[in-house]
Amino acid sequence: MLEVNGIANGIVLDHMKAGLGLVVFNKLVDGKIDHPVVLLMNVSSQAMGKKDIIKIENTFDVDLNILGLIDENITVNIIKDGKLFEKQEVVIPKKLKGYIKCKNPRCISHFDNYVEPEFTLYSKDSLEYLCSFCDEITKYE
Ligand SMILES: [Zn+2]
Prior knowledge:
- The chain has two helices and nine strands; from the N terminus they run βαββαββββββ.
- By secondary structure, it is mainly beta.
């Protein structure tokens, strides 16, 4: 097995399906933090066959909404002094603000910068959200 040093203080995102590591990296990490980051891809896993892992040295506020939208099975482990300090739960967010834009071109949220639509989860399986202004259904992609 590939050996990568553990981190003393930071975050380990585990149990990502193989291939999702890069998606999470692009959405969550790239350009947003400048701490050392390790992306492990196609790591053998008894439960999953292959999985991806991301280790981030140094703590920062993990955007659990983004993780939930990518895959709610991702495990977020907060490491302090080399030990597991806390596990954070990843869930598909029931409300969303700012992560998606309403797909209705006539929706007021496209014309007025001061109104930010709030989206309510409509379908968990397809990640579809209902706009608070126009009731249009928009899919998170
Ligand atoms: Zn709308």
